[in-house]
Amino acid sequence: METKTCAPLGNFIDLMLDAICVVDAEGRFVFVSAACERIFGYAPEEMIGKPMIDLVLPEDRPRTLQVASQVMTGQPKPHFENRYVRKDGQVVHIMWSARWSEQEQVRVAVARDVTELKQAAALQTALYAISEAAHAAEDMLALFRHIHRIIGELLPADNFSVALYDAERDQLSFPYHVDVQEPSPVLRKPAAGTLCAEVIRSSQPLLLTPETLDGFPAHLRQIVGRKSLCCWLGVPLNSSKGTIGALVLKSYSGGVRYGEKDKELLQFVSNQIATAIERHQLYARLQYMAQYDELTGLPNRGLLFDRLHTALARARREQGQLALLYLDLDKFKQVNDTHGHAVGDQLLRAVARRLKLCVREADTVARIGGDEFVVLLESLQHPEHAQPAADKLRGALDQPLTIDGHSLRILPSIGIALYPEHGDSAQALLRHADDAMYRAKKGGESCLPPQEHPLSGDGGCAPQPA
Ligand SMILES: Nc1nc2c(ncn2[C@@H]2O[C@H](COP(=O)(O)OP(=O)(O)OP(=O)(O)O)[C@@H](O)[C@H]2O)c(=O)[nH]1
């Protein structure tokens, strides 16, 4: 039978998408097929004679050498994966199938570039992790920290910032910022004139490298020139409400170079992050709305009760005392009727501000209804201190308020409840304070019935005309 020589097939090896590398016993390339240039970026003549290990990513070198010596003892390795650094500095993931040829004293290996597969898998994992993080993170800082870690698994991310844009104030803030050369971010108001602002304004990613700098406007070139930056990559955070900020990666001289692929990757991740941030902001807003009064920004009834329960638990534990002051503005309706609801709103805000100025940081001023406020005085040293506190609140409101050009004077009726004298539970104390306030309003009585408190007979909490 006629046998055909296979020698011409050698030329067709160059058609293969996988690369063939032959390495001698010292680990130097002695043959590489044409596909090597596509995968590693080096021409065959640049690789021949070079130690294979020099091209391996430093972190992967020890295990690569270990596997190479196993192959040389005759154990074929069909699925070994490691990472190489291409000539242009990019990292490629390679899957190897290698065998030792005893006869030729060489290692023959077929290399498959699995970078895209690896990136797709990493991206998938990252997206899942981002979505998990958005649900699990307790606050925005924890979310950004988590996101930094996730991005760090996809890209070199030693210098990473999250910039958020407040359109109302035209201000950029950096709720997350890690930067080896610029530890504190520069707060900008107005935001214009920064690279971040450029990304947010255009809603487009921006990649600045020494090679691409010439194509950019002078003001952007200046910013980069100033900072010994090697590479600046910013992508917009595009939410359903528009661009809410930007993610920024930086690399300084001698560091990593980002490429177009990195830009695409970061943009893709950024879209998921924008959704996560938006969801988190919405959740935070809902939480705020559930606890605070929208008009005055004071704690609402629910949060007051939470704090009161906590304060009572502590007072029980430590045999402490506390006071609850119930305030209802007198003839507030007239303000609305005479000057309009908007003036009434402003008056309520002004009252809230004044009340807050009268108490300590640890105390709570809450708005629990239309013109009803409750002040919780914690760690009350003596029951006698409650009445002067009520007088102080009343005194603060006694000063005229100028709203929309109207000079208004509004006074509250105040009722006081003391723990433990007037009750052991939040409900009992609030009811007691409400009743005392009601008596004060109706009868011009003092906050505490005289038989209950010796200092309460001064009429300091009696209602006054507005
Ligand atoms: N501007 C404004 N008014 C409110 C708001 N919430 C409730 N009100 C009004 O506040 C008034 C409270 O009612 P009352 O406490 O009975 O009125 P008052 O004139 O203070 O009555 P007395 O306490 O008996 O002196 C009502 O007219 C409500 O419509 C609010 O958020 N803004």
UniProtKB/TrEMBL annotation:
User: Which residue ranges does the record annotate as region Disordered?
Assistant: 442-466
Q: Name one Pfam family in it.
A: GAF_2
> The GGDEF domain covers which part of the protein?
320-453
Query: PAS domain location, by residue?
Result: 5-75
Q: Which GO terms describe its molecular function?
A: diguanylate cyclase activity
Q: Does the keyword Ligase apply?
A: no
Q: Which residues cross the membrane?
A: none
Q: What's the Enzyme Commission number for this chain? A: 2.7.7.65
> Has the keyword Transferase been applied to this entry?
yes
Which PANTHER family does the record cross-reference, listed alphabetically? DIGUANYLATE CYCLASE DGCT-RELATED, GGDEF DOMAIN-CONTAINING PROTEIN
Protein name listed in UniProt: Diguanylate cyclase
The organism is Vogesella margarita
